[in-house]
Amino acid sequence: MEKVQQYPVCGFVPPYILSAIADSAIAKSDHVGENSRTACKHTLEHGVSYATQRHELCARTQQTLVAEEATLPGTVQRKIYSCNGTENLPGSLVRSEGQVRIKDRQVNNVYDGFKITHDFFSKIFGRNSLDGRGLPLIGSVHFNLSSTPEGYNNAFWDGEAKQMVFGDGDHISFDFLTDSLDVIAHELSHGFVQFSSPLEYEVQSGALNESCADVFGSMVEQWHMHQSVDDADWILGQTLFPVAFTGSALRTFKAGKAYTNDPVFGTDPQPKHMDNLYKESGDNGGVHINSGIPNHAFYLAAKSLGGYSWEKAGKVWFKTMISGKIKPNCDFKTFAKATVDIAEEEFADASVQNAIRDAWVKVGVL
C-alpha cells in the first residue's frame, strides 16, 4: 500500500515555552496567574491531540477549502474566517479577496499579512503563492478551545488543511498573535517549505523546517520595512508578550540568547553552534531549539554579504529549497552543502559562496 503523506501542524510558540508557563510552581509566582497557566496547559495539550486528529478535521475543512481555484501569477486570493472563540474550523467566512476592511483588527491584520507575504515571494522570487501554483491563502482567527475560555496561546500552519489558524492569546502571557507580521509570515513560510522541500518535522530536518520558516518570515518583515541586514533587529516574536515576559523576543538570529534568567521562561535554549546541539526527545527532537544553528548561519551569511538579506543569502536559501536536492530527512550538513553548491550556480562572484560556506563553518556544521 502506498504511504500516505502526512503533513505536520507547525506552531509558532514552542512547547517548552508553553510548558514553562503551565508549570504549577511558576503559576504560583507573581508573574503568571492561574488563568494563563490553564490556557498554556490546554494549548500545549491541543497541539498534540490536534496532530493526531487532523485527518478527520481536514475532511470537514477541505469540503470548504479545497474547491478554491488557483490564482494567476502575481495575484493573491485570500479568505479569512472567524472561529468566534470556538475550535470549529474553518469558521465563518468574514472577509474575502477584494472586500473592504471590517471592524475586526485580527481579521484585517491577517488579510494584510497574507498579502505582504504573498507579494514578497512573488516579487522577489517569482513564486506564485506558497505552492508555486497559485494556492489560495486561508486563515482562521479567534480560534479557541471549549475547555479554555482564557484564550488560545498559539498560531499554527495546518499542512493537511493548507491553512493558518490564530488564537487570540490569554492577554497575560501572550497577546494577539495576529498583531505580529513575523508570526504570520513564519507560519505561511511553513507552507512554502511543505510545497518546495517537505522536511520531516523531527530532529535536524524538523529544525531546518522551523529555521526556514524563521528565515523567510524574517525576510518578509525586513522587505516590508525596507530594512537592510544592518537595519534589521533579527529577532522574532517581540510583540507577543504583554506582561509576563522580560526578554527582548522569543528567538534571535544573532549570537547569544533572546532572553536570560527570565523569571518565567528561564534562559533561551537555542544553540548557535553544533557543540551545543540539543539531543533530547522533547519538542520533536528539538525542532524549535536546534533551529537556532541554521538561523545563525543564515544571519552570518547575510551580514557578511551586506545589502538586503533576500538579494544573495535569501536567494540561495530559496533556490536551495526548490532545487529538488533537499530530501525529507535532510540533516544540517546536507542542507549546508546544498546552499554552498547553489551559491556557486547562482552567483559568478565567489564571495557569495565563500560567505555561505564560512557561515556554516562558524556554526560547526561544515
Count of discrete structural domains: 2
Q: Based on the structure, what is the oligomeric state of the protein chains?
A: single chain
> How many alpha or pi helices?
11
- Uncertain runs are 61-67
Write down the CATH topology of the largest domain.
Elastase, domain 1
Concise summary:
Keywords: Hydrolase, Metal-binding, Metalloprotease, Protease, Zinc. By secondary structure, the chain is of the alpha/beta class.
Describe the structure.
- The protein has two domains: 9-196, Elastase, domain 1 (Roll); 203-362, Neutral Protease Domain 2 (Neutral Protease, domain 2).
- The protein is built from eleven helices and eight strands.
- The chain has helices at 15-22, 24-27, 34-65, 105-125, 181-196, 203-224, 282-286, 292-305, 313-321, 332-346, 350-362; strands at 9-11, 78-82, 92-96, 137-143, 155-158, 163-167, 235-236, 251-252.
- A hairpin with a 4-residue loop joins β5 (155-158) and β6 (163-167).
- Residues 61-67 have low confidence and may be disordered.
